[in-house]
Specification:
about 230 residues, mainly alpha, 8 helices, about 80% helix, about 0% strand, elongated
Length: about 230
Amino acid sequence: MARRRHREVHRTQRTGWLRAAVLGANDGIVSTTSLIVGVAAAGSERSVILTAGVAGLVAGAMSMAAGEYVSVSSQADTERADLDRERKELETDIEYERKELANIYVKRGLDPSLASQVSDQLMAHDALGAHARDELGISDTLRARPIQAAVTSAITFAVGAAVPLPAVLFAPMSVLAYVAGFTALIFLASLGALAARAGGSHVARGSLRVVFWGAFAMLATGWIGTLFSS
Protein backbone atom coordinates (compact mmCIF):
# COMPACT_ATOMS: atom_id res chain seq x y z
CA MET A 1 0.00 0.00 0.00
CA ALA A 2 1.49 3.30 -1.09
CA ARG A 3 2.34 5.79 1.63
CA ARG A 4 0.55 9.09 1.50
CA ARG A 5 2.84 12.02 1.01
CA HIS A 6 2.74 14.53 3.85
CA ARG A 7 2.45 18.03 2.52
CA GLU A 8 2.86 21.04 4.80
CA VAL A 9 1.73 24.54 3.89
CA HIS A 10 3.52 27.32 5.76
CA ARG A 11 2.28 30.88 5.51
CA THR A 12 5.23 32.75 7.02
CA GLN A 13 6.87 32.98 3.59
CA ARG A 14 3.96 35.17 2.50
CA THR A 15 4.30 37.75 5.23
CA GLY A 16 6.53 40.17 3.31
CA TRP A 17 4.44 40.68 0.19
CA LEU A 18 1.13 39.94 1.93
CA ARG A 19 1.62 42.73 4.45
CA ALA A 20 2.51 45.23 1.73
CA ALA A 21 -0.34 44.08 -0.53
CA VAL A 22 -3.02 44.25 2.15
CA LEU A 23 -1.76 47.58 3.45
CA GLY A 24 -1.62 49.07 -0.04
CA ALA A 25 -5.05 47.88 -1.17
CA ASN A 26 -6.73 48.77 2.12
CA ASP A 27 -5.18 52.23 2.18
CA GLY A 28 -6.08 52.78 -1.47
CA ILE A 29 -9.73 51.94 -0.94
CA VAL A 30 -10.15 53.80 2.36
CA SER A 31 -8.20 56.98 1.60
CA THR A 32 -9.49 57.53 -1.95
CA THR A 33 -13.10 56.67 -1.12
CA SER A 34 -12.96 58.89 1.96
CA LEU A 35 -11.59 61.71 -0.19
CA ILE A 36 -14.37 61.22 -2.74
CA VAL A 37 -17.06 61.06 -0.05
CA GLY A 38 -15.76 64.23 1.58
CA VAL A 39 -15.56 66.19 -1.67
CA ALA A 40 -18.99 64.93 -2.78
CA ALA A 41 -20.52 65.82 0.59
CA ALA A 42 -19.26 69.38 0.10
CA GLY A 43 -21.51 69.66 -2.96
CA SER A 44 -18.76 69.64 -5.58
CA GLU A 45 -19.34 68.93 -9.26
CA ARG A 46 -18.67 65.50 -10.75
CA SER A 47 -15.52 66.67 -12.56
CA VAL A 48 -14.06 68.04 -9.34
CA ILE A 49 -14.82 64.81 -7.48
CA LEU A 50 -13.26 62.73 -10.24
CA THR A 51 -10.15 64.92 -10.32
CA ALA A 52 -9.79 64.56 -6.57
CA GLY A 53 -10.15 60.78 -6.81
CA VAL A 54 -7.61 60.37 -9.60
CA ALA A 55 -5.16 62.74 -7.91
CA GLY A 56 -5.55 60.78 -4.69
CA LEU A 57 -4.86 57.55 -6.56
CA VAL A 58 -1.62 58.79 -8.15
CA ALA A 59 -0.33 60.64 -5.11
CA GLY A 60 -1.21 57.81 -2.76
CA ALA A 61 0.45 55.13 -4.89
CA MET A 62 3.67 57.13 -5.10
CA SER A 63 3.56 57.91 -1.39
CA MET A 64 3.00 54.27 -0.49
CA ALA A 65 5.86 53.14 -2.71
CA ALA A 66 8.25 55.71 -1.25
CA GLY A 67 7.18 55.04 2.32
CA GLU A 68 7.49 51.27 2.02
CA TYR A 69 10.85 51.52 0.28
CA VAL A 70 12.29 53.84 2.92
CA SER A 71 10.96 51.89 5.91
CA VAL A 72 11.89 48.44 4.60
CA SER A 73 15.28 49.76 3.43
CA SER A 74 15.94 50.88 7.01
CA GLN A 75 15.15 47.37 8.18
CA ALA A 76 17.41 45.92 5.49
CA ASP A 77 20.24 48.27 6.53
CA THR A 78 19.90 47.14 10.13
CA GLU A 79 19.99 43.49 9.09
CA ARG A 80 23.03 44.13 6.91
CA ALA A 81 24.87 45.90 9.74
CA ASP A 82 24.13 43.05 12.15
CA LEU A 83 25.38 40.49 9.64
CA ASP A 84 28.57 42.47 9.03
CA ARG A 85 29.22 42.65 12.76
CA GLU A 86 28.55 38.94 13.14
CA ARG A 87 30.87 38.15 10.24
CA LYS A 88 33.72 40.07 11.93
CA GLU A 89 33.10 38.32 15.23
CA LEU A 90 33.30 34.95 13.48
CA GLU A 91 36.63 35.95 11.94
CA THR A 92 38.17 37.19 15.21
CA ASP A 93 36.80 34.79 17.85
CA ILE A 94 35.15 31.74 16.33
CA GLU A 95 35.42 29.67 19.52
CA TYR A 96 33.39 32.19 21.48
CA GLU A 97 30.80 32.27 18.70
CA ARG A 98 30.58 28.47 18.74
CA LYS A 99 29.94 28.48 22.49
CA GLU A 100 27.44 31.31 22.10
CA LEU A 101 25.48 29.32 19.54
CA ALA A 102 25.59 26.21 21.75
CA ASN A 103 24.21 28.23 24.69
CA ILE A 104 21.30 29.32 22.53
CA TYR A 105 20.41 25.68 21.88
CA VAL A 106 20.77 24.84 25.57
CA LYS A 107 18.24 27.56 26.42
CA ARG A 108 15.91 26.02 23.85
CA GLY A 109 16.00 22.66 25.59
CA LEU A 110 19.00 20.67 24.32
CA ASP A 111 21.47 19.16 26.78
CA PRO A 112 24.93 20.81 26.69
CA SER A 113 26.72 17.96 24.90
CA LEU A 114 24.13 17.72 22.13
CA ALA A 115 23.99 21.51 21.85
CA SER A 116 27.76 21.58 21.31
CA GLN A 117 27.51 18.93 18.59
CA VAL A 118 24.71 20.81 16.83
CA SER A 119 26.67 24.05 17.09
CA ASP A 120 29.82 22.43 15.68
CA GLN A 121 28.01 20.88 12.71
CA LEU A 122 26.03 23.99 11.84
CA MET A 123 29.11 26.19 12.16
CA ALA A 124 31.00 23.84 9.86
CA HIS A 125 28.22 23.98 7.29
CA ASP A 126 27.36 27.70 7.38
CA ALA A 127 28.54 29.63 10.42
CA LEU A 128 27.13 33.01 9.42
CA GLY A 129 23.80 31.52 8.37
CA ALA A 130 23.46 29.67 11.68
CA HIS A 131 24.13 32.80 13.72
CA ALA A 132 21.93 34.95 11.50
CA ARG A 133 19.01 32.56 11.94
CA ASP A 134 19.38 31.49 15.58
CA GLU A 135 21.08 34.49 17.20
CA LEU A 136 19.79 37.44 15.14
CA GLY A 137 16.47 36.01 13.95
CA ILE A 138 17.24 36.78 10.29
CA SER A 139 16.15 34.24 7.65
CA ASP A 140 15.72 34.28 3.88
CA THR A 141 11.96 33.85 4.28
CA LEU A 142 11.45 36.90 6.50
CA ARG A 143 14.28 39.06 5.22
CA ALA A 144 13.51 42.67 4.28
CA ARG A 145 12.98 43.26 0.54
CA PRO A 146 12.52 47.01 -0.10
CA ILE A 147 11.84 46.90 -3.85
CA GLN A 148 9.30 44.10 -3.53
CA ALA A 149 7.48 45.96 -0.77
CA ALA A 150 7.49 49.27 -2.69
CA VAL A 151 6.21 47.82 -5.97
CA THR A 152 3.59 45.69 -4.26
CA SER A 153 2.30 48.63 -2.22
CA ALA A 154 2.13 50.99 -5.21
CA ILE A 155 0.26 48.52 -7.42
CA THR A 156 -2.18 47.38 -4.77
CA PHE A 157 -2.86 50.95 -3.65
CA ALA A 158 -3.68 51.96 -7.22
CA VAL A 159 -5.99 48.96 -7.63
CA GLY A 160 -7.74 49.72 -4.36
CA ALA A 161 -8.00 53.43 -5.13
CA ALA A 162 -9.68 52.65 -8.47
CA VAL A 163 -12.58 50.88 -6.71
CA PRO A 164 -14.76 53.99 -6.07
CA LEU A 165 -14.02 55.70 -9.41
CA PRO A 166 -16.79 53.96 -11.42
CA ALA A 167 -19.30 55.31 -8.91
CA VAL A 168 -17.98 58.81 -9.54
CA LEU A 169 -18.42 58.34 -13.29
CA PHE A 170 -21.84 56.69 -13.38
CA ALA A 171 -23.76 57.11 -10.11
CA PRO A 172 -26.40 59.87 -9.83
CA MET A 173 -24.99 62.92 -8.07
CA SER A 174 -27.66 62.73 -5.35
CA VAL A 175 -26.40 59.32 -4.16
CA LEU A 176 -22.81 59.37 -5.44
CA ALA A 177 -21.21 59.44 -2.00
CA TYR A 178 -23.40 56.59 -0.76
CA VAL A 179 -22.73 54.42 -3.82
CA ALA A 180 -18.97 55.01 -3.59
CA GLY A 181 -18.95 54.26 0.13
CA PHE A 182 -21.08 51.12 -0.17
CA THR A 183 -18.94 49.81 -3.03
CA ALA A 184 -15.79 50.45 -1.03
CA LEU A 185 -17.14 48.62 2.02
CA ILE A 186 -17.97 45.56 -0.07
CA PHE A 187 -14.44 45.47 -1.44
CA LEU A 188 -12.97 46.09 2.02
CA ALA A 189 -14.93 43.15 3.41
CA SER A 190 -13.68 40.93 0.58
CA LEU A 191 -10.10 42.17 1.02
CA GLY A 192 -10.17 41.50 4.76
CA ALA A 193 -11.54 38.01 4.19
CA LEU A 194 -8.96 37.17 1.52
CA ALA A 195 -6.09 38.50 3.62
CA ALA A 196 -7.27 36.53 6.64
CA ARG A 197 -7.63 33.37 4.58
CA ALA A 198 -4.19 33.78 3.01
CA GLY A 199 -2.67 34.35 6.43
CA GLY A 200 -4.56 31.48 8.04
CA SER A 201 -6.46 33.66 10.54
CA HIS A 202 -10.17 34.13 11.34
CA VAL A 203 -11.95 35.27 8.16
CA ALA A 204 -14.94 37.05 9.72
CA ARG A 205 -12.77 38.90 12.23
CA GLY A 206 -10.38 40.08 9.53
CA SER A 207 -13.25 41.24 7.35
CA LEU A 208 -15.10 43.13 10.09
CA ARG A 209 -11.91 44.84 11.22
CA VAL A 210 -11.21 46.55 7.91
CA VAL A 211 -14.89 47.35 7.30
CA PHE A 212 -15.22 49.08 10.67
CA TRP A 213 -12.22 51.36 10.23
CA GLY A 214 -13.06 52.03 6.59
CA ALA A 215 -16.59 53.08 7.48
CA PHE A 216 -15.30 55.25 10.30
CA ALA A 217 -12.91 57.08 7.97
CA MET A 218 -15.61 57.66 5.35
CA LEU A 219 -18.09 58.97 7.91
CA ALA A 220 -15.50 61.36 9.31
CA THR A 221 -14.55 62.85 5.94
CA GLY A 222 -18.19 62.97 4.87
CA TRP A 223 -19.02 64.96 8.00
CA ILE A 224 -16.17 67.38 7.27
CA GLY A 225 -17.45 67.76 3.70
CA THR A 226 -20.93 68.68 4.93
CA LEU A 227 -19.42 71.37 7.14
CA PHE A 228 -17.80 73.00 4.12
CA SER A 229 -21.03 72.62 2.18
CA SER A 230 -23.05 74.42 4.85
